[in-house]
Design a protein that fits this description.
With about 425 residues, this protein is an alpha/beta fold. Helices cover about 35% and strands about 15% of the residues.
Length: about 425
Amino acid sequence: MPKSSFNDVTVLDFSRYLPGGYATQVLADMGANVIKCEDTGLGDFMRHDYPTKGGGVSYYVNALGRNKKSVSFNLKNPEVVEAFKKMAAEADIIVESFRPGVTKKLGIDYDTIKEINPRIIYCSISAYGANDPRSLKPMHDLNMQATAGYLAVNHGSMSPLHLCDLSTAMVVGQALLAALYERNTTGEGCYIDTSMFDCFVWWNSLLDSRWSFNDGVCKRTDLEYPSVAYNVYETKDGGRYSLGMVEAKFWKQFCEATGHEELIGKGLLREWEDPEAFETVRQIMKSKTTAEWDEYFSDKDMCVGRVNTKTEAVAQLIEENPEALAYVEFPRVGKVLQTGLPHHLSNIPTPISEFKAVSDLGADTADELRKVGYSDEDIARLHEEGGIKFAEDFPMEEDRAPIAPDGFVNKELGALY
């Protein structure tokens, strides 16, 4: 990984699922020593999510676990808790996503860790914040999208991306960097109480402001789009093309070039305002195949783009944006796609070619304990007692792959579900 000031930053990541993993991935890519702290059962549950490849390595951990180490601890073992505290005494950041109260029961809460390391930056992630009783109930991304009003505005449609999780990951990443900067000035660490719901409400700021300015109305049909000039249309061969010409000058060029000057001035109308204009553009776009539109638009200064399949998009990105998407060889999984870090700091290069695969569950347990003074004899004893585990303790899983379009193979039942 790159040589940078982040090489001296150690992160202990107890989080599960996307929010914490995405945030700590940024630090790992920039050169920080990020250690996934996983249990002695299955570890991070998302290690086993479908589809898997190369001895049970999931797509999820392949995407968000790169450049990270792994230790396997049983935190119900008091001696292992003491071992973790020794690691925490030397760490800079802790990220956890247990329900409120769990870390205190385990003896690894912020107040406890702060006593042994006043410089620690301790980030908790929960549904509504550490002091809100709603965080004690089970909650996921979709539920908070629903509560925030976003799903209603979006006609109840589920996004392929977990928007609440992603907004939380962005906030956590920003907060950790802000806390590191503040600590450089004050010498003091801090506690970051992250409410996933608040993060998503922040992302909804334009919708909520619109609702306020529009006298309590914010419906999908009331938004600026789809409009005549900002919409997705079908082509002659069943493909799709996106038009994004909200600026009058671009829309005017399109109308004149296609011989439909009568549409000038109608680009921002919604379908309920002028259904005939929508139908006219539908017929225009169906007059050519996707490839023909590619050729037609190639020399024109208009905001357009074909709707790529994921396969087409990957091929295009690899050719045109290799800094954003490229293949890399990882042990056990072979040649896999990795997305690049988009920050592009000139003094912290993060080329995809230098990314390392996530450590197998428990692969770094012994090494990390040695760093805080544990002898090989102590480590062997803790292992024998079941307090810690190594990578060899976890058998390679049978690879599992999705079956489109009806479901996934269930390894135990041999059926679709």
